[in-house]
Design a protein that fits this description.
There is one protein chain. The chain starts with a helix and ends in a 30-residue tail after the last helix. 50% of the residues lie in helices and 9% in strands. The chain is elongated. It is an alpha+beta fold. Strand 9 and strand 10 form a beta hairpin. It binds adenosine-5'-triphosphate and magnesium ion. The site of adenosine-5'-triphosphate has 11 residues, from helix 9.
Length: 477
């Protein structure tokens, strides 16, 4: 289907048109904030009903209702963003967002119980049945707005973006060309102002306008470029990729709570491994998880990180539950392990050394991304249980199995064994213990060592390898 779609697009969308519109979109973003007239208009390409493959049947009833009600009240209404993009790629959109020329207040009148949310970027949440549809008002050029409606920080970061405009200005305020395609049931056309159809065909993530300026306005766009490239299996267009490395430190200016949300979208949407590799390639990873990044010269740390992401991707594919607690536990573990070893070398016993290491590495991560308590508490329990799993004597094994975090801690133990951090063996014991009947378990406990020898279960096979914060094989401090 996709190929035929593309061939029909081609008839409508010749190359020169795309570069024209790209240039114009670029000049729109680069334009200094003056009170002069808006930048020149990008060229609109309309793909009529018969020349694209989107049908209203692909769109959720709630989104159709929202569009219809807006149109009946005399407003324009379009599906935009991931909904259009994913349908063109034959995928299943997560949700449908609607763009309109109605202000949030005007749109609110049309939907009972609708709420206006957001300060930085005000949008309407319209509830239709159980579905919530995000309705956004067309964004305009900042030069057209009042000072208080659009604000930038000294780094060029957008603090507010509530200047309203028309469809054209809305298109060039969006992030990537493939996210700026508009579909309307009023004529069933797709409107493309930025060359998005061509980029879908060429499988490219291309920033609208000047990439560096757009990243400075909102550094999260750097993560979004990687996220969409990984999810869609697209390339990042070279000009869009070029500034990433240099601008990556701007991620420090993003609120930790927003970073946490973005990280979940990056790593817990089923494409975590590919996303991780791309984040490393573009040198963004050290700004998300610096303590993890500092350990990745160690093959075990790299393997543990990859394996944790691989497992997460797999579980998502199988519709199994995934929790950020487990993933964060894995990402921070190599640094904790290394720090614990450092403290033990100074004579601190293993259990308090682990607690201190966990405290230190968690606090340093919180500077970059928030970790809500409902995840940080189980994360710590997973770590704590790593020193309890080897000690199985008496009633201990039975009690441990009752612990609410047992399953996660056991999975974590297997992950550590698989990555080569610790020798295999204990994981198998616990597998058999869970499968055994009551008598079998009693027998197993009787035969298990009462207390594992020092280091077993937490011991490091490769003592000379990974060191605290060390980049390569230099000696530990
Ligand atoms: P998905 O929902 O599948 O992750 P999406 O493209 O729908 O992808 P959303 O985060 O839901 O992404 O955003 C909806 C649309 O809003 C985007 O497609 C894009 O057009 C615009 N958008 C979102 N975030 C930004 C941003 N930071 N800068 C510019 N435009 C943005
Ligand atoms: Mg979306």
């Amino acid at each position: 289907m996709f190929n035929s779609l593309i061939s029909t697009i081609k008839r409508w969308h010749s190359k020169p048109t795309q570069s024209d519109s790209q240039e114009m979109a670029g000049s729109a973003a680069k334009k200094p904030r003056t009170k002069s007239k808006s930048p020149s208009k990008p060229r609109r390409v309309v793909i009529p009903r018969n020349d694209h493959a989107i049908s209203r049947r692909d769109i959720s009833r709630a989104a159709l209702t929202v569009m219809k009600r807006l149109q009946e009240a005399g407003f324009q209404a379009y599906i935009v963003g991931g909904g259009v993009r994913d349908l063109l790629l034959n995928g299943h959109p997560k949700d449908f967002d609607v763009a309109t020329d109605a202000t949030p207040e005007q749109a609110k009148q049309l939907f009972r119980g609708a709420r206006i949310v957001g300060r930085r970027f005000r949008i309407l949440h319209a509830r239709i049945g159980r579905e919530v549809i995000e309705v956004t008002t067309f964004r305009g050029h900042h030069s057209d707005g009042e000072e208080h409606e659009a604000q930038q920080s000294e780094h060029g970061m957008l603090l507010r973006d509530n200047v309203y405009g028309d469809l054209e200005s809305d298109a060039v305020r969006r992030d990537f060309t493939v996210n700026a395609l508009y579909y309307t049931t009023d004529g069933f056309e797709i409107h493309d102002y930025t060359g998005g159809m061509d980029d879908i065909e060429q499988r490219l993530i291309r920033m609208i306008g000047d990439p560096a300026t757009r990243y400075k306005e909102d550094p999260v766009r750097m993560l979004r470029a990687v996220r969409f490239a990984a999810k869609l299996d697209f390339d990042i267009e070279p000009g869009t990729a070029a500034p990433l490395k240099e601008l990556a430190p701007l991620l420090r200016n993003v609120a930790p709570a927003r970073m946490f949300d973005e990280i979940l979208k990056l790593l817990m949407s089923g494409h975590g491994v590919r996303t991780f590799e791309l984040l490393r390639e573009h040198q963004l990873w050290p700004h998300l998880f610096p303590d993890n990044a500092a350990q990745l010269d160690s093959p075990e740390a790299l393997e543990l990180t990859r394996q944790a992401l691989r497992n997460t991707d797999q579980r998502i594919r199988n519709d199994q539950r995934v929790t950020p607690a487990f993933l964060y536990a894995a990402l921070l573990w190599p640094a904790i392990n290394s720090e614990q070893q450092f403290l033990m070398d100074k004579g601190i016993p293993p259990v308090p050394a682990l607690a201190q290491a966990a405290q230190k590495i968690t606090s340093s991560q919180l500077v970059h991304t928030a970790i809500p308590k409902r995840f940080s508490i189980p994360m710590r329990e997973i770590w704590d249980m790593q020193s309890r799993l080897p000690r199985r004597g008496g009633e201990r094994a039975f009690r441990l199995m009752e612990h609410p975090r047992f399953r996660a801690a056991y999975d974590f133990l297997l992950l550590r064994e698989d990555s080569g951090e610790i020798p295999k063996g204990l994981g198998q014991w616990w597998t058999e213990f869970q499968q055994a009947d009551e008598d079998g378990r009693t027998q197993m406990v009787r035969e298990a060592p009462r207390n594992s020898p020092k280091g077993k279960g937490r011991g490091r096979r490769n003592r000379g390898g990974r060191r605290r914060g060390a980049k390569s094989g230099d000696s530990a401090s």
